[in-house]
Amino acid sequence: MDTEIQKPFITIDGVQISIEDLPEEGQAIFGRIQRENTKRVTQTLDLEATQAAISWFTDRIVTIINKEGEKGSTAEKDKAES
To answer: pTM for this structure?
Structure first.
């Protein structure tokens, strides 16, 4: 079975250029591009996790406030009945 290994490439003006075809300086810059793209993906995932945490904590506060409101209205009913 022939399995073709995809070599890293960059697309410039619609043309795919293999990293091996770049001069040494271009290869170094290509490496930087890959690292920056990896950082961007990690930052995006971190941002999504942060947003999820903020939503969870916000929902938790709402739940706490609603429970306190229920306790308060029960206490008010008890006072009114006395």
So the answer is: 0.62
Q: Are 19 and 9 in contact (CB under 8 A)?
A: yes
- Positions in the chain whose pLDDT score sits under 70: 1-2, 74-82
Distance CA 36, CA 22 (A): 19
State how far the alpha carbon of 14 is from the alpha carbons of 10, 11, 17, 18, 59, in Å.
9, 6, 9, 13, 47
Residue at 51 is within a domain: yes
* Residue 21: domain span: 9-81
